[in-house]
Every structure is written in C-alpha cells, then in structure tokens.
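Milestone 3.1: sequence recovery, worked example.
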C-alpha cells in the first residue's frame, strides 16, 4: 500500500545556502547596475551633457523644458525682469552655434546632495567653460536619479533695436515693440529683454530695402545678462529715395515764376522793376546724406545753388538789363519711415 500522505521533499541546508547566495548575487548585481546607471546615464554630469547637446542639436524645445530651466514669476521678479518678458527666442532656428565637443571637467558632490558640474566645450571658434549647480528631484520609478538646475541657465539678452524696431536673430525676425505700452511704441530706439538658452552663440542683424544693420555675433554664457545693439542705418536705396524727393521739391520751387518761391529755401529781392517772369533753375542740388538722430534720420544743412534769370528795368536811369545770378542756399531735413513703408520728410 502506498503512503497516503506522500513523502516530504527535504531541502538540504546546502541548497538553501546556495539559493540564498544566488539571490544575494542577483540583488547585488541589480544594485550595482542601478548604481552604475545613477552614476552614468542618470548622473548629474549626464544631465548637464544632455542639456548642452540639446542646444547643439537646435532642439531648443527640449533644452527649455529641462527641469530647472524655466523661470517662474517669483524668479523673474528676483532678477528684476518683467513677468511678461519675451520668450520668442526660445525656439529652434535662432541659435547660431551651440556647445560642441562637450566634456565634463569636474563633478563635485556637495554635502547637501547638490552637484557642482563644470563643463568644457567649443562655442563657435572658442573653447569655453560653464559651471552648473544641479540638485536631485524625485527619482524615476523611485530608483533612478533625476536632476534639475538649482539656478536656471537661461540668459537674458537686452536687445537695443536702434533706429528700427525690427531685428533678425538667426532665421527669426522680431519686433522689439512687442509687449511695450502705447506711449513707447513710437520710440526711435527700443530696448527689450529676451530670454535665451545658453551657452550659445547668437547672431543679430537686419536687412530690408531701406534699412540694414551689420551682423553682431554674441557668445552668451549660461545665466548671463548681456546687451546687444542692432544698429539700423539707411541703405543706398533709402538715400536715393530721399534724394529723389529733394530733387522733386526743388524742381517744384524752381517752377514758381516769382522772386521768392513759397516754402522754398532760395529767393531774391530786387529793388529795380521786374519786367519779365523770373526763371529759376537748380545749378547744384544738395546731395543727401543721412545719419541717425534722436527721432529720425537727419540730413545736416547742405549747400545747393539756384540760378535766377529775369529782365529788369533800372529805376535810376531807366535802362533795361537781364539779371543773371547764382543764389546759394542750405537745405536740412529729417526722414522717417511710416508704418506702410513710405518715407516721410520734414524740412528743417
């Protein structure tokens, strides 16, 4: 007859020890792998490297979304920045050059759990370094380290758009009047702060038919507040259009058959009796030059010459003669660009 209760399987103490040892090895290997991941892929250095690589790849969305990068209202206030500061430059296509050949110079673990990470990189043609303070945040799955910047690496670039509210940075053209109060919209020069990812190189310039600003290359470090001036100046086409208007204006003056053409910079007084219509011609037209003034592009007083030809009778002895005389004059003006792109000229 069989044993109704069956037989107990006995596990030897040696087998228990073996299985226990294996479990310890598995746990140990897991913990070792986890520690390796937390030191490498999920380490503070890798966190910084990924941020810098995102800038280099022009993945500005990822860089800007990195924990600790965004600035809240309190942080903006502490930095003396308006809460509606422009974020227009936080997009792809704006950065001229990001950090390349990144290497970690040092990663120092501080007693409070933060890490001081210093990275070296090539920015354009220069080798540079930046220091970052990062701190731990809630781990991923409760196991893998996660980090954030203790101080945002975003830079603030104060752009002075001189003599023209528009400027171009990278492939993006911006209007420095955005978010400005109505009383400042007509200012000839606008100064506007912009948030920008950093470290990075930015190139500012502007070019249109009437205005052009020479390129300004600005390497910006993490956390830096820097100033850039985009100095728009009249193009040859602008000067040519103003010259055309000056020529037309003087031609209209010359077409007036009077001794003192109305609202014109030249004229003559004759004591004798005029016996014919005065004929004016422009001998020398003032050549337009424009420089930026306080509120407009100005032409300084510039000399021109008009010529009058008129028949006159001498009141003393009654004889008739033809008066031929050159009359020099000066012309100054201020030119501005209207919102529709046309040019407004104000004579001075």
């Amino acid at each position: 007859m069989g044993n109704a209760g069956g037989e107990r399987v006995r596990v030897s103490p040696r087998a228990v020890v073996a299985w226990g040892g294996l479990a310890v090895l598995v746990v140990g290997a897991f913990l070792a792998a986890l520690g390796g991941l937390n030191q490498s892929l999920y380490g503070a250095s890798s966190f910084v490297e990924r941020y810098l690589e995102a800038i280099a790849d022009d993945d500005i969305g990822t860089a800007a979304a990195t924990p600790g990068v965004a600035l809240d209202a309190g942080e903006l206030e502490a930095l003396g920045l308006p809460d509606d500061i422009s974020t227009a430059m936080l997009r792809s296509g704006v950065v001229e050059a990001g950090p390349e050949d990144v290497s970690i110079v040092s990663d120092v673990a501080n007693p409070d759990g933060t890490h001081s990470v210093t990275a070296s990189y090539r920015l354009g043609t220069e080798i540079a370094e930046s220091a970052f303070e990062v701190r731990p945040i809630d781990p991923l799955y409760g196991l893998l380290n996660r980090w954030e910047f203790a101080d945002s690496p975003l830079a603030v670039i104060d752009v002075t758009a001189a003599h023209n509210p528009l400027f171009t940075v990278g492939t993006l053209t911006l209007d420095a009047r955005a978010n400005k109060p109505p009383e400042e919209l007509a200012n000839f020069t606008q100064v506007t702060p912009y948030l920008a990812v950093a470290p990075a190189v930015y190139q500012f310039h502007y070019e249109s038919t009437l205005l052009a600003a020479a390129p300004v290359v600005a390497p910006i470090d993490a956390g830096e507040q820097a100033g850039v001036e985009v100095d728009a100046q009249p193009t040859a086409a602008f000067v040519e259009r103003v010259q055309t208007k000056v020529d037309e204006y003087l031609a209209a003056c010359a077409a007036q058959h009077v001794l003192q053409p109305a609202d014109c910079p030249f004229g003559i007084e004759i004591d004798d009796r005029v016996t014919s219509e005065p004929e004016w011609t422009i001998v020398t037209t003032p050549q337009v030059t424009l420089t930026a003034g306080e509120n407009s592009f100005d032409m300084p007083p510039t000399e021109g010459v008009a010529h009058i030809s008129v028949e006159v009778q001498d009141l003393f002895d009654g004889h008739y003669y033809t008066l031929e005389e050159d009359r020099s004059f000066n012309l100054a003006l201020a030119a501005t660009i209207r919102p529709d792109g046309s040019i407004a000229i104000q004579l001075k």
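DSSP finds five helices and 17 strands in the chain. Confidence is low (pLDDT under 50) at residues 1-5, 28-38.
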